[in-house]
Fold this sequence. Notes:
Blueprint: E1 3-9, H1 15-26, E2 31-33, E3 42-49, E4 64-72, H2 96-104, E5 108-112, E6 121-122, E7 125-126, H3 127-132, E8 142-155, E9 158-165, H4 171-182, E10 186-196, E11 199-200, H5 207-214, E12 217-218, E13 227-228, E14 248-250, H6 253-260, E15 265-266, E16 275-280, E17 284-293, E18 296-302
Parallel strand pairs: 3-10, 14-16
Antiparallel strand pairs: 1-3, 2-3, 4-9, 4-10, 5-8, 6-7, 8-9, 10-11, 12-13, 15-18, 16-17, 17-18
Helix pairs in contact: 1-5
Amino acid sequence: MNAVLIIDKPAGLTSHDVVNRVRRILNQRSIGHLGTLDPMATGVLPLVVGSFTRLAQFYTTSEKTYEGTIRFGFSTDTYDAEGEPTSPPQDVTLQKDELETIAAKFRGVIEQLPPPFSAKKIQGVPAYKLARKHKEVVLHPVQVEIKEFEILSIDAARAHFRARVASGTYMRSVAHDMGKALGCGAHLESLRRTAVAEFTLADAHTLDELAAATAGKTPSENSSDNQPGVALLDLFVHPRKLLPDLPSVSADELSAARIRDGRTVNLPELSRARQVKVFAGQRDLIAIATRVAGSLFHPKLVLCANDAPVRS
């Protein structure tokens, strides 16, 4: 089974928890994700299945979009609502103009200190493991980019926001730093990821929907009245929608066989693109190929070898 599946991650599960559940549901061992979400966070968690795990290399720097809530009045050790308070609570009256002025300072390329409870490694050890043992966590600022950061509304001591950021940006740190700027402390109260690269919430499915589709049923409010429903295949992202910046070309049977063997072939020239997605048929993405010269392409990444069954 080769596929990309977008899960709407529920709160309370780690990204690895979700991967393990999907492994059991699909009875498929080879599954990975394209970008960790904190346990508290919800939303778009793209999973790659089977040989498509090799596509992960194209998504390491994907931008992400979030909506969430910052709670002002006290900070926490994790920079979010799951941590212990690290400052006394204060009564806060937020002014939208003042908050928007502060938010503007976080747009663009900035230096950001990662949270102590993060996966950043210190001498090979994730920072959160040291923080949990109350050991000293010494992290250094890193350069990140916040492409959009908008305060949507204010409700008492809470600010609701939308942000579009480059890979590696911590919205928990943004919340914490905004609290410092206002002098009242703050933390990230909620976070929902609405997009990763080309994947959005419109592509996402719940774990229950996946389980029901695997069983050949669609979930309803009354579990005893489930009806046969959407096929499992329909929950997967159509392979032609993947990596939209790369043109798609279709290989004939002979060329497809050569590509699956890792051999250079001539492909239809639809553009002067350096790389293309190569399909055998409508759905079977068999390779990512790199132009050698003219219409001659070499498969950089073979996703379906000749000795492997083609399944989507």
